[in-house]
Every structure is written in structure tokens, then in C-alpha cells.
Amino acid sequence: MTSLPLAVTPGEPAGIGPDLVLQTAADAAWPGGLVAFADPEALARRARELGVMVTLHEWAPGAPLPSSGLPVYPVPLAQPAEAGRPDGANAAATLAALDRAVEAVLAGHCMGLVTGPLSKAVISDGTSRPFSGHTEYLAERAGATGHPVMMLIGGNLRVALVTTHLPLRAVPDAITGDKVIRVVRTTAEALIEDFAIPEPRILVTGLNPHAGEGGHLGHEEQQIIEPALERIRQELGDRAHVEGPVPGDTAFTPRCLREADTVICMYHDQGLAPLKQQAFGGAVNVSLGLPFVRTSVDHGTAFDLAASGNAGGGSFREAIALARTLAANRARATV
Ligand SMILES: NC(=O)c1ccc[n+]([C@@H]2O[C@H](COP(=O)([O-])OP(=O)(O)OC[C@H]3O[C@@H](n4cnc5c(N)ncnc54)[C@H](O)[C@@H]3O)[C@@H](O)[C@H]2O)c1
Ligand SMILES: N[C@H](C(=O)O)[C@H](O)COP(=O)(O)O
């Protein structure tokens, strides 16, 4: 299993995703083991723009990997990709590349999936289907019965989210007891099985300032989060230690973090702002609770940097390394 390649999708073809894939493949120290699902002509053009030398080899699932260069499963774009100028006409092909990569992973031809950044707006506008993010889309594609959890890992933080890509106004209604329980359960199971952390310590934040201040600043803690945590504590028993709800600011103080393996936050920016402040450019996004390993970068499409050669590849390299570790841990856990 761990000798299989990783499937990689460069993501938005006008963004920096193709740069990261090509620069990684051109690195003399690069040991190989990636297959790109992308338009070979678009990759070749970006390589020329970057001045990067990489030989691209057409690849099909099950075929042997070339001894050097970058294997590519071809997924043609509708229009030539212009660096920094996203084109909705390419949105369907960009999603198709993701679909082919997921199929290759599910069919056992690749050990996991590493995704480059997509623009949710370009995909939504270009395909006329709402696209809120890879996490939600992959869950749908993979037919996961569970509900995948978005976790970002960087610096000394692991942050998981109860709600992900939705308007802030919709967040309180989206936080239900069942959802809190599912997210804590999925996070605990992934920490134990994928990350090999026995008895993980999980800190769960509240939604409101000061975790609701005893009901004076909001009722979600008393009415929803506390009862849900009580139920999941009983379910998990000694397998994990769940604390909370703690105020969202206090959760990120050094003392709290020393006592936690993961912080579960109620909404996107409550968790990702502290994480990106600490580790942007070197952190990894991982989808917990999927039937396969999927990691991604911590940054977006950075249209301003596409084809400039100035896109940092730290997060992409970490995403590849973590995908390999998680795949190896999963393989060990299933023998
Ligand atoms: N994994 C993903 O698919 C993913 C993650 C985050 C954002 N996005 C998408 O990206 C788009 C743009 O989002 P944004 O502008 O908020 O964030 P962004 O990460 O694209 O850009 C924020 C800033 O960081 C810089 N930056 C980003 N990546 C960098 C890198 N590798 N090296 C150096 N500098 C880098 C950019 O130049 C910009 O100044 C949105 O459509 C969003 O949905 C996708
Ligand atoms: N929420 C992520 C971030 O801010 O880094 C990002 O948008 C990617 O999410 P998906 O992996 O679901 O596309």
C-alpha cells in the first residue's frame, strides 16, 4: 500500500497549485511517488513560464511509474489556463480532475490524495453547482457515511472545526448536539487510529464570548454544547479526554494548549485564524473521517503569485509528508 503513489490535484489551473506540483517534481532531492491529475499541456506551459524542467509522462491507473519525471493522468481543460486569470470555462475540468483522482484512490491505485487550492467561487460560478470546499465535496463523492471533519495542523496546533464553509450568520443554527458529538467522535477516532495518539486530550470551545458567561452572553453552551459533550464523554469513556466548552480565546493560551492534543472550534475563523497566525505556509489541512487519506495546503489559489516562482512550497511538501504518514498508520492499523 505505502509503495503506491499519491494522487495530487493541482487545483485551480490559474492559481499557484500547478507551480507547487512542478517545483516539487523538479526538485533534485524529490524522491518521486506523485501522480498529477491535470491537463499535461497546461502543466507544460506553466513549467515553461516558471523556467522549470520536468519531463511529463502520461500515466493510467495501474500502469508502472516512470523512474523519473512526473506521471500525469490527463484531464484536459476546456481553455488554455492563463496564470492569474481564472476562467469559469475550466471549472468542470478542474472538478473532473478531482473526481478521477478520487476514483484512482478508491480503486486502490494510489495511497491517498493531496489537493492543491481550488477557488470555491470559480467552481460555483463555472459549474452552476454550489461548491463550498473539498471537504464537503469529497464526502459526497466518496459516499462517506460519516461527516468528515476539517482539521488543520501547524506549529504546535491541531485545530478541528464543527462548522466549515458557511456564512457566519448561519453558524449558530448549524451547531446542533448531534453535530458536536459527531465531530468530537470523528476527531477522537482519527487521533487514535490515524495519528497514533492514545487517549487523546480534546479541548472544545464555546461559541459565544466567554463561552456564554453562564447564559448572559448566549445560550448555545448551556443548551447544546455542554449536554453534547456530556454524552460523547460517556460514549468515549477512557479512550479520549474531552474538556469544554472553554472560551474560544482562552483555548489558545499556552497553558490550555499544553494540556490538549487538539482544539475543536465552533467555526472556521475561530480556529483557523490562530493557526494561520502561527503556521501559515507550513501547515496542513487534513480531512478526518473519509474512507481514504486526504491532505491539502493551508493556503489558497494566490492568483497574484501564479507563474511568478515566488509561491512558497512548504505547506505542499508538509501535506505530502503527512499523507504518507497517515497512509502508513492506516495500513499498519489494518494488518
Ligand atoms: N485548500 C484550498 O483549496 C484552499 C485553501 C484556502 C483558500 N482557498 C481558496 O483560495 C482563494 C483565495 O483565498 P485567499 O485570498 O483568502 O487566500 P490565499 O491563501 O490565496 O492568499 C492570501 C495571501 O497569502 C499569499 N499566499 C498564499 N499562498 C502562498 C504561498 N504558497 N506562498 C506565498 N504566499 C502565499 C497570497 O499571495 C495572498 O497575499 C479563495 O477562493 C479560497 O476559497 C482554497
Ligand atoms: N478552509 C480551508 C482554509 O482556509 O485553509 C480551505 O478553504 C480549504 O478547505 P477545503 O479543504 O474544504 O477545500
TrEMBL record:
Keyword tags: Cobalt, Cytoplasm, Magnesium, Metal-binding, NAD, NADP, Oxidoreductase, Pyridoxine biosynthesis, Zinc
EC number: 1.1.1.262
UniProt key word Zinc: yes
InterPro entries tied to this protein: PdxA, PdxA_fam
Cellular compartments annotated: Cytoplasm
Pathway involvement of the protein, from the record: Cofactor biosynthesis; pyridoxine 5'-phosphate biosynthesis; pyridoxine 5'-phosphate from D-erythrose 4-phosphate: step 4/5
Residues the entry annotates as binding a divalent metal cation: H165, H210, H268
Pfam families from the UniProt entry: PdxA
Entry's Gene Ontology molecular function annotations: 4-hydroxythreonine-4-phosphate dehydrogenase activity
General remark: The active site is located at the dimer interface.
Xref: NCBIfam families: pdxA
Quaternary state and interactors: Homodimer.
Assigned protein family: Belongs to the PdxA family.
HAMAP family: PdxA
Protein name: 4-hydroxythreonine-4-phosphate dehydrogenase
Gene this chain is encoded by: pdxA
